[in-house]
Design a protein that fits this description.
single chain; alpha/beta; Rossmann fold; 2 domains; six-stranded mixed β-sheet; four-stranded parallel β-sheet; elongated; disordered N terminus; transcription regulation
Length: 278
């Protein structure tokens, strides 16, 4: 299981994997492998262990099969309800809570979510964390404030912005929006701009992921920074430590994210009405 996309997440993750392997003098073999061929791949190459980039919910059965086959592995970019599976991931619940607590402290009680990748493990965890926070605070989540899709419903970024602009122009807007990934925050920002809605004067916006470009947006984006390179490093270290002891890796480790507050968030323009708080 592998990802070859050269983007803000996979680049730093692979750099962390490569640097940790170099530090430990481990020889790496990068290989794209369909999930159902992992067992054959391990037997053919005779590798000592596997770092599996397994970002989708659908990968869980294959990881379980690897576990049952006693293949030494550590998966990253994922976490599941079974915490015995050897995974290294960001603590998505902690990251979402930081973002929403920030909005709450500013006075926001009408918060929407844009999450267009629910087939991914991390985006799904963020949706679950969002619902949990809203329930704890007793905040109303109107159906049209949960903009959800299992995978990006549009092709090009321009098409996605057009789709989002059309959707936002036909609903009553909240005072704040949480974009479950950096791309989703960018799409939302552009869509709001096309709808004539200013950020943060009319709607505050928070994202998840903090590439260098986030600080240079207009306005600079408040977002959750993931320790992406450290995820890769820790996955290699976890596998190596277990192999040195002659045991299989086990247990999920969650690394802590950090909220970076910039200028895309501000107190709401108007206070919510009692009905909005119901």
């Amino acid at each position: 299981m592998n990802q070859t996309q050269d983007n803000i997440y996979w680049g730093p993750l692979l750099r962390g994997i490569s640097c940790a392997a170099a530090d430990l003098e481990i020889r790496l073999l990068f290989h794209y492998c369909p999930p159902d061929h992992i067992g054959d791949f391990v037997k053919t190459t005779r590798v000592d262990g596997v770092i599996a980039l397994a970002p989708y919910v659908a990968h869980e059965p294959f990881l379980r099969a690897m576990w049952q086959a006693r293949i030494p592995f550590v998966a990253t970019s994922c976490s599941f309800s079974d915490e015995n599976l050897p995974c290294v991931d960001t603590d998505n619940f902690a990251g979402v809570r930081q973002a929403l607590e920030h909005l709450w402290s500013l006075g926001h009680r009408q918060i929407a979510i844009v999450n267009l990748a629910l087939s991914g493990c991390d985006p799904l965890r963020r949706w679950e964390a969002f619902q949990q926070f809203m329930d704890e605070k007793g905040m109303l989540l109107k159906p049209y404030w949960a903009i959800l899709h299992p995978a990006f419903p549009c092709g090009s970024p321009e098409t996605a912005v057009q789709w989002m602009s059309h959707l936002l122009s036909h609903i009553s807007l909240p005072t704040a929006i949480f974009g479950a990934t950096y791309d989703m925050a960018l799409i939302t920002l552009q869509a709001l701009r096309r709808c004539g809605v200013t950020v943060p004067q009319e709607v505050s916006l928070v994202g998840f992921d903090d590439p260098a470009s986030a600080a240079f947006l207009d306005p600079p984006l408040t977002t959750v920074r993931q320790p992406v390179e450290q995820l890769g490093r820790r996955a290699v270290q976890k596998l190596y430590e277990s192999l040195q002891k002659g045991v299989r890796p086990e247990g999920t480790e969650l690394l802590q994210p950090e909220l970076v507050v910039r200028l895309s968030t501000a107190p709401p323009k108007e206070e919510a009405t009692p009905n909005d708080l119901a």
